[in-house]
Amino acid sequence: MKIGYWLHIAVTRWPRDEPHVIYLHSVLTQRRIVTRNPELFKKLLRFELIDVVTTLGLAGCVNAAMLIMAASTFYRGGLSHIGTIDEAYKALAPLLGQASAFVFAISLLASGLSSTTVGTMSGQVVMQGFLRRNIPAWLRRSITMLPSLMVTIIGLEPSCTLVVSQVIFIFGISFALVPLVLFTRARM
């Protein structure tokens, strides 16, 4: 078996959360309702937990649905060799019609923009909160887009690069979650 097989297994099967989403969500909701009453605060935290679990759970369900539908469509069409985003795009039109390839392309674009926005805003939150530094928006966005531009300029294969970046992301989670837990744990 090739190393790519094991990378795909690691990316699709490894349980992971997205700490940058947790950072951003906590910042976006912390000023929504403010209370000093301990009983109301406990109730607020319970609702916050429900909110976070619901939104991340829904996102996980959407991701699972996309994987399941793609796998079943390609398997039913006898295309078990699809291994890149480009191959998936080209295979969709003959299987499901030209509109499906267009929707796939628009979905990838929306996903990329959403991911970039969340990453940029989370980076801003971390820089301003923990490091007490304010970086101009144009510089943050430039830094965020730099890896994607480098992949394009160098001519790396996008699907392989995506898988490798996700593997690196999996191992990097502990570097984001450990400080989150340490800085936000309850001190008794």
Chain-wise SSE layout:
Elements: H1 3-13, H2 19-29, H3 38-76, H4 85-96, H5 98-129, H6 137-154, H7 158-184
**Helical residue percent band:** over 70%
Overall pLDDT level: 76
Which geometry do the CA atoms define?
Answer: globular
Low-confidence stretches: none
Structural class by secondary-structure content: mainly alpha
Radius of gyration: 20 Å
Helix and strand string, N-terminal first?
Answer: HHHHHHH
Q: Which band does the percent of strand residues land in?
A: under 5%
Report the strand count.
0
Number of helices: 7
Largest sheet: none
How many domain units? 1
> What distance lies between the first and last C-alpha atoms, to the nearest angstrom?
52 Å
Summarize the structure.
The protein contains seven helices and no strands. By secondary structure, it is mainly α.
Explain what the structure shows:
There is one protein chain. By secondary structure, the protein is mainly alpha-helical. The chain has one domain. The protein contains 7 helices and no strands. The chain has helices at 3-13, 19-29, 38-76, 85-96, 98-129, 137-154, 158-184. The protein is globular, with a radius of gyration of 20 Å. The protein starts with a helix and ends with a helix.
